[in-house]
Amino acid sequence: MLEVYIWFYAGCTLVIVGSLATVIGPGVKDPLVRTLNTEIPAVGLSLIFLTYNHTIALLTFIAATSIITLILLRTIVRLEEMGAEL
Amino acid sequence: MILVPDVVSPVVVAIYAPAVFVGIIVALIGLFGISIEKNDLQVLILTDIVGVAMLIIVAAVGTDLAESLVLPGLVVELAEILAICEILMSREMRKTGKSVSLIPTPLNFDMEVLQTSPVFIAVILVIYGAFLSGFTGGAIAGGGILFYVMSLTVRGLPSDLWEGIAGASGIAWCLWLTGFLVLFVFPNYWLLGLMLAAFGVFIKVAFKAGLIGVMNREEFRKE
Amino acid sequence: MVVSILGSQIIGIIPLGDIVFYMTSFNLFMFAAALVFTFIIAISKTETQIEAEFGSLGDREIKVAKKEFKFRRFLAIICGLATAGAMVTGDLFDFTLFVCLIGIVNIGIVGAVKQVDVLDSAFQYGLIAMIASTPLFVGASLILAATGTISILAINSLTYTTPMMLFGSILLFLGVAGETGVAPFFATKAEMFRTPGSPFLLIIHLSSLLIIVRVIEILLIINKPF
Amino acid sequence: MNLMLNILLNVFIAFFIGSILIGLQRKIMARIQGRPGPPVIQHLLHTLKFFIKESAFPKTAAMPFYVAITAMLFVIWVAAVIDGPVTEGSLLLIFAIYTIQKIGEHNAGSSSGSPYGKMSCVRAVYSAAAEVPLFAVLIIIYLKAGTMNISSIINYQSIHGPLLFTIPLAAIMFFVLILSKSQYSPFAITKGKDIVSGYETEHFGLLRGYLMISESIAWYMLLWVFLTVFLGPLSLPAYLIGMVVLSAIVAFINAVTPILNPNHSVMMQVSFAFIGIAGSIVLLMI
Amino acid sequence: MKSIGRFWNSLANPDRIPRFYALVLGIVLIAGFLIPIGLNDHQLYPRPEPQLQINAQDPLAPYDRGGVTFEQRGIVKAQYPQYLPAIGEITAYLSPIAMGVDHTTLYYGTSIYSSPGGLIDEILYYTRGFDTVLESSILMMAFVIASFIALNFTMRRED
Question: Do D96 and C44 touch (CB under 8 A)?
């Protein structure tokens, strides 16, 4: 039974640390760094899904996150190329 | 062994409150970030964090229902980010008056492996996805198509592929609707309805994911 | 079995599995209104805006291009249907999904224009819609956790209100407020209305107002003062 | 009585009394401001006049829509009369009708293609915020009376006394709503004279006639709802007196206040709502 | 009075609205720490304790809800069983290939039970099918919007 709690709290810690890292972490002025940082809470969330045995949700989440990251990266690079000042 | 218990297991009940608190904390961190951030693009990235908070709280109910509710949440997030990114780019393009290629860096990675492996990986993923069918299957097969299309950036692609894919996914959507109607109008043919629904969603999701890839390549050198 | 909701009797239900649509005279009226407006929009042309030209005495016409017109009409019809659905749905989660659909279609209706200002407010509105999907789903899931059901009819027959349900419904309301852009978050929405294409803009306004009225009904069902 | 006849009679009464009250209001305003003012039946005559005038349609209008919206406005207010004085049905429904009326107002403006109409349309979106007090009122009434049915609310009041005294803040909020609907009031940003006639600018002939009829019925219905919901069972003369008194108060306020800037007008109403909600909840607790 | 006016005016600027909304939402969420949060354990569609089925070496873990294909229905606790004539059938259904894999490996359920038939599919397609219709419509609309904008505005076409 212990392992359920271990995975759960590990996931929680990762999510919180990861979101802190995304919001106020070092180098987040660069949107690229920030986007990559969002992957840390994503891993934490995956662990939480695992504790609840939400296997299918987990698989879909992984697929969706990778697509979201792809979209964001494309946006960032294109905006950079345009020289947009936001 | 108990297949389906009467009540939710005590473990899930015990970790419900911590899970909700974690969700709220994460949401607060994300919202704090949004409210102090000036840059529009950065805010867009930060909304991702708020979405994670939502998924935690929904998943924490810990029933099969919760799991099936997580899926729409994910999809909504994906859909909105997709549409908003495009609007942001459209806005900036009008502001600066510059147009840039959709994959901006000159894709010069003319590596041998990109010429040969993608087809293989894509085929494997699509077949595995077809085997799974339904949502997960669609996502996996879509990843395969995506991979294939991305690799084609360096090789060029027939230009009318887009319209074809878009049309097919529309048809798949109708297929899925038909399946849904069969399930309710003729419950006896539930197997037929199930298959229609599962494969309709499969084709739809797969092609949608593939579309992202096509969007990424649009004006490549058509050699 | 006679079930009454907020004092008015249920006229009929449409069961789609676990998701049950119910109708009282109130729901039916709003459902019909949404459909009628959608129909009128589907058969209308757009108006032409006339603006004075700067530096001369001439006028300038602003029209909606054919391609853009078709695209926006399609989205407007979808939005109208989604609004009609949200009026009669008897399932909390289904309702939130309808609201999300309306939100994203609204962004699309104004996202296809060319004015930078309008695009900017469409983007800001989109940001709010994205943030708002969190309180929306969280609210629904808190109510699910507290009551064990998300069917509005089942919640209607409960006799108690816990603080958690109240919290969930406040979040639900905030989510809907963000997703539809009511006061005090109206500014993004009002700016979007400066673009031509009034029949399509109507549906944005219609959907948000009807959704707000409906969410009030749902909140009153969930929270019983007695 | 025959239901059909009942409906027709009530719609006619609503139209007649509503337009007389609007005329009365303009007269009082004029007198306060030291002008002779139009005769009391001016608004009624005005409405009737438009039905025998030629109808013209602007070339720029969004066609079936531009005509349909006026008909819709008329139809929904007839529906309000059916739900209100005729059957005493759901209060929620009347509020739904009120919100749809907002949409009609908004789009009557934008569908004509006129810049004034457009301005009025954008302001109508702003003033959608006026619904916040509306819903607050609704919730407070429900919390107090425990029902959404007008006839049950009347019953409740005949037992417990008028709601005006038990939830005064809700009544004030509702009054602000009525104020925002009346012409020339500080909150009437959609019809301010700075944008000519607001959403009605480009409606001529028959269409304008319909718009004005629905305006009169709307005014009557708002006063009717206020009197019914807050003062309980009233006799016919009492209704009449109440409506005249309310119109006079509104006219007095309108005569002495300037119109606010759109954004301030909206935020003012929202602030009223927040104060009202908080105050009412505190009052309910005590 | 002037400062209130200035504050109201600042709320009319679209750029500030998302930040303002985030702030309001944050304040409301803080209330979540103050109220008692607890899970009502009488839920719809309950599932066994986490890891229970996996530890019991069930090949269909964690999605085994009983039932035999075409013969016996699986156990599904829906809200309105009276409206669902074929409830449990989809949960019990395994495709022929799936049955083959079922007998060879212990970890089948974690990988492939999402095939047509299976618990989530019962919920997604049958009991709460309308949710999925909406969900896929949302996705479709997003793609329609994104591809319209991309095709007409943001894409640089070389032809």
Answer: no
- Smallest CA–CA distance, residue C87 to chain E, in Å, is 15
Q: Is C21 strand, coil or helix?
A: strand
Sequence-distant (6+) residues with CB within 8 A of D26 are D37, D38, D42, D43, D183, D251
- Residues of chain B with Cβ-Cβ distance to C107 below 8 Å are 80, 83-84, 87
- Chain E, 67 to 96: residues with Cβ < 8 Å from chain B are 75-77, 84-86, 89-90, 93
Residues E20, E87, single domain; the answer is no
Which residues in chain E have Cβ-Cβ distances shorter than 8 Å to B36?
19
Same domain flag for B128 and B206: yes
Segments forming the whole domain that contains residue E14:
2-33
Alpha carbons E95 and E54: distance in angstroms, whole number: 22
Interval D112-137 mean pLDDT: 74
D100 to chain C: closest CA residue? C206
Could you tell me the residue range of the domain that residue B138 belongs to?
112-217
Range of D96's domain?
3-285
Residue D225 in this model has a pLDDT that exceeds 80: yes
Domain count, chain E: 2
Residue C7 structure tokens: 């004092």
**What string of DSSP letters covers D236-260?**
HHHHHHHHHHHHHHHHHHHHHSPPP
Q: Comparing C-alpha atoms, which of D178, D21, D8, D147 is closest to residue D86?
A: D8
Query: Following DSSP, what letter does each residue of B60-91 receive, concatenated?
Result: TT-SHHHHHHHHHHHHHHHHHHHHHHHHHHHH
ipTM for the whole complex? 0.86
- Window 10-69 of C: residues touching D by CB (8 A cutoff) are 24-26, 29-30, 33, 36-37, 40-41, 43-51, 61
pLDDT at B167: 67
Query: Between chains, do D93 and C25 touch, taking CB under 8 Å as contact?
Result: yes
Q: Which of C61, C194, C209 sits opposite D99 (nearest CB)?
A: C209
Instruction: For residue range E77-110, list pLDDT tens digits in order.
Output: 888 888 888 787 877 777 777 777 777 777 766 6
Residues E72 and E120 in one domain: yes
Q: Are residue E19 and residue E60 in the same domain, yes or no? A: no
Indicate which CATH number applies to the domain containing B22.
1.10.287
Chains touching chain E through at least 3 C-beta pairs below 8 angstroms are A, B, C, D
User: Which structural domain, as residue segments, surrounds residue A33?
Assistant: 2-82
The verdict on B175 touching E (C-beta cutoff 8 Å) is no
Q: What residues does each domain of chain C span? A: 4-222
E125 touches chain B (CB under 8 A): yes
Per residue of chain C (226 residues), what is the pLDDT tens digit?
456 776 677 888 888 878 888 888 888 888 888 898 888 888 877 777 777 777 777 777 777 777 778 888 888 888 999 999 998 888 888 899 999 999 888 888 887 777 788 888 888 888 888 888 999 999 999 999 988 888 888 888 888 888 888 899 889 988 988 888 776 666 667 667 777 777 777 888 888 888 888 888 888 888 876 6
Q: Which residue of B has its CA nearest to A1?
A: B11
User: C61 in helix, strand or coil?
Assistant: strand
